[in-house]
Design brief:
Blueprint (H helix, E strand, L loop, with lengths): L1 H42 L2 H6 L7 H14 L6 H12 L22 H5 L7 H26 L6 H13 L1 H9 L2 H17 L3 H10 L4 H17 L1 H25 L3 H15 L4 H6 L1 H21 L8 H17 L15 H8 L1 H6 L3 H29 L15 H27 L2
């Protein structure tokens, strides 16, 4: 009997060790795919080689614009600041011959982003860049447990290991950390807001969510749901709305005080930014006329989901369904869904957690949902598998890839590009099932 127990225990340890080794190999494959394969290809292109020499950090335009505004009282949206950003970001002003191909990296954030960056402004960017990257790394590590707590999930050691490894090795996390993307900070603020809401700190949760609107396009649907949820039981939930409203008012008033008329400048900068970048995932799949119709339908459907689940307590299955609905719909209608902005998929961390927990349970009794669930899981897993294959060919077989847009090298990026649509399809199946059961 004792020998049999030892054999079973040994097999379990061997299985866990093998699973861990496979997970680590796949994580290495994804990280090397981005840092060792893609960046090498991009730097060897004419456009990539032209940009070598600057900071090449998404933080830099925001940091410089905020620094010039707060310390020198200059308009960060002005052409003069944009030219200074070009010099720092690319190492030189944009060559007129290359200007049609090169994003000017203009300051296109709301003015109140300067309040979040204020502690970093007195220091040179050579110090700010590594410090901010370290901060984002720590915030990334904290984001997962915050989401697990907010969603009221229970995970074993194996689940924690795989979730942490998958999140930190994901293309979105690696890209976000390398670029110093504020999206990583926003992802943490959203997770922190929901965790505080579940901990009985609604006013502070509202303040934290207000801070996340430095990237309003990532937050507006989630904020709409939480405000509907809060106002539906005003007596017990009013403090969330009060905290959010007071913080937003403070950001807007503070912005007006340091730059009167900033909204007009920002709106123009946003229009120019959108002109430089790709449209939404739906626009790419359906074309502009149909994507507008489908986007409107998805927003309307989201509103229905918010309304039907407005009384659900934080962390319940119904609350989580409305929460992930807001984030998944945001991901498919968000401008610039691909083409260098996969870091925005950090927004989908709770949706992926839900996919393997509450979403899996909802899919069991409805065949279309089971098929869509399997498709989303397969698409997610395939990202790491194909990235590992590319990395293995590059590092072990010494194959030199020269073109990013080839079928083999570009396959992981295509899978990442399609993943929000796969999640959305599964969500629609789940919502369809939910509506049928409530008829």
């Amino acid at each position: 009997m004792y020998a049999q127990r030892r054999l079973v225990l040994g097999r379990g340890l061997l299985r866990n060790a093998l699973l861990g080794a496979i997970a680590l190999a796949l994580a290495w494959g994804m990280v090397y795919y981005y840092l060792g394969v893609l960046l090498s290809i991009r730097n060897n292109t004419e456009l990539g080689a032209w940009g070598i020499g600057g900071y090449q950090s998404d933080l830099y335009p925001r940091w410089l614009g905020a620094r010039e505004l707060l310390l020198h009282h200059r308009n960060p949206y002005s052409p003069e600041i944009t030219e200074e950003i070009e010099r720092g970001f690319y190492g030189r002003p944009i060559d007129p011959a290359m200007r049609p191909q090169v994003d000017p990296e203009a300051f296109a954030y709301p003015v109140y982003v300067t309040f979040l960056l204020a502690p970093l402004l007195p220091f040179p960017f050579e110090i700010v860049k590594p410090v901010f990257t370290a901060i984002l790394l720590l915030l990334s590590l904290a984001t997962l447990p915050l989401w697990v707590y907010a969603l009221n999930l229970r995970m074993g050691r194996r689940g924690w290991f795989l979730a942490f490894l998958g999140m930190m090795s994901s293309y979105s996390a690696v890209e976000g950390l390398r670029l110093g993307q504020i999206t990583v900070l926003v992802s943490f603020l959203i997770a922190g807001s929901l965790a505080l809401l579940g901990s009985g700190w609604p006013m502070l949760a509202g303040v934290l969510l207000a801070c996340a609107i430095v990237k309003p396009q990532l937050v507006y649907l989630l904020a709409a749901f939480l405000l509907v949820w809060s106002c539906s039981e005003w007596t017990s939930r009013a403090r969330f709305t009060i905290g959010f409203a007071v913080a937003v008012a403070g950001l807007l008033i503070g912005s007006h005080l340091i730059l009167p008329g900033w909204f007009e400048f920002w709106w123009k900068a946003v229009a120019e930014y959108v002109g430089w970048h790709r449209g939404s995932l739906l626009a790419a799949l359906l074309g502009r006329p149909f994507s507008v119709i489908v986007s409107s339908a998805l927003i309307t459907l989201s509103g229905l989901v918010f309304w039907r689940n407005r009384f659900a307590p934080v962390g319940s299955a119904r609350f989580n369904l409305a929460l992930v609905t807001s984030l998944i719909v945001t991901s498919v209608i968000l401008p610039n869904a691909g083409g260098g902005s996969f870091y925005n998929q950090m927004l989908l961390i709770p949706a992926v957690l839900w996919l393997f927990t509450g979403g899996r349970a909802l899919a069991r009794n409805y065949r279309p949902a089971r098929i869509a669930w399997a498709g989303a899981v397969l698409g997610l897993t395939a990202e790491w598998l194909v990235a590992f294959a590319v990395s293995f060919a590059a590092l072990i077989l010494h194959y030199r890839f020269r073109i990013e847009a080839s079928a083999f090298v570009g396959a992981p990026e295509f899978l990442m590009y399609a993943f929000p649509a796969e999640l959305a399809l599964f969500l629609l199946c789940v919502l369809s099932q939910s509506l049928r059961t409530h008829e």
